[in-house]
Design brief:
about 55% helix, binds CO-5-methoxybenzimidazolylcobamide, about 210 residues, single chain, 5-stranded parallel beta sheet
Length: about 210
């Protein structure tokens, strides 16, 4: 088994010690952070999701796998930010109310920081009022909304309506597994991205930086 396969397994098992050791080994072997992300970490979460859907594992197993994934991201983040560029703008981001999934959102934060943005991360389960208050305080160029559940994506529309009612005109981008470009257009988001890297390109192009 190579280091990426072993890392994927340790994430699935939720072993923090093995995960820390294996991410470090992969980096020491010279494997690029993006490869570690795609071929071990994100792959592991996909397998976990499939097993959950099939009833082979339950919420506690998903939770410990997610904890291991976030630990791995903490180690990768400084490496990914090593060559980051001068600040270009400000992103305010959160996972919307009712939704506790934060890994995709955390990845978007890392990619934006790497592209030179200041990032204000409101975390998960964020209410409209919190987005509005933070937007008034921080005056972001872009507001990012993440949602992983079909039961919570509609809350994104409430956030956009709340922001606009309060005169906040920052560009709003949305993403998360159940989100589609059609849905983004329907709720008047300024854009949709299906992964963290394209979310950065989208933000830059909305600000005329790309
Ligand atoms: Co949950 N969960 N979960 N879960 N979970 C999913 C999402 C699910 C697809 C699993 C499944 O059934 N196969 C399913 C949703 C079904 C649906 O709605 N269609 C599901 C369910 C049902 C649930 C519960 C309801 C289970 C229950 O309680 N019975 C429950 C809900 C809790 C709640 O939120 N209120 C629940 C709970 C949890 C945990 C808390 C245990 C844990 C999350 C812990 C955490 O995040 N800290 C968890 C996990 C880990 C998952 C899976 C396995 C992995 C999610 C993940 O991190 N993926 C997931 C299955 C799956 O995704 N295959 C599943 C990796 C991550 C990198 O991808 O977040 O998609 P993702 O982000 C991507 C893109 O979507 C995009 O970029 C990222 C990649 O670069 N992106 C953006 C994301 N946000 C973006 C924002 C942008 C742009 C792009 O712009 C702003």
């Amino acid at each position: 088994m190579n280091v990426l396969e072993a890392l994927s397994e340790s994430i699935q098992k939720g072993s923090l010690t093995d995960t820390v050791g294996l991410v470090t080994s992969a980096l020491n072997e010279g494997i690029a952070p993006q490869i570690i992300l795609d071929e071990a970490l994100i792959k592991a979460m996909g397998i976990i999701g499939d097993k959950f859907k099939e009833g082979e594992i339950f919420v506690p197993e998903m939770l410990i796998a997610a904890r291991a994934m976030n630990k791995a991201l903490q180690i990768l983040e400084p490496v990914m930010l090593k060559n980051s560029v001068k600040a270009k703008g400000r992103l305010l981001i959160g996972t919307v109310q009712g939704d506790l999934h934060d890994i995709g959102k955390n990845l978007v934060c890392i990619m934006y920081k790497g592209a030179g943005f200041n990032v204000i991360d409101l975390g998960a389960n964020v209410a409209v009022e919190t987005f509005v208050a933070a937007a008034k305080e921080h005056k972001p160029d872009i507001i990012g909304l993440s949602s992983l559940l079909t039961t919570t994506i509609n809350y994104m529309q409430l956030v956009i309506e709340g922001l606009r009612k309060n005169g906040i005109l920052s560009k709003v981008i949305i993403g998360g597994a159940p989100v589609t470009p059609e849905f983004a257009a329907k709720i008047n988001a300024d854009g949709y991205a299906d992964n963290a890297a394209t979310a950065v390109n989208l933000g830059k192009s909305l600000l005329g930086l790309a």
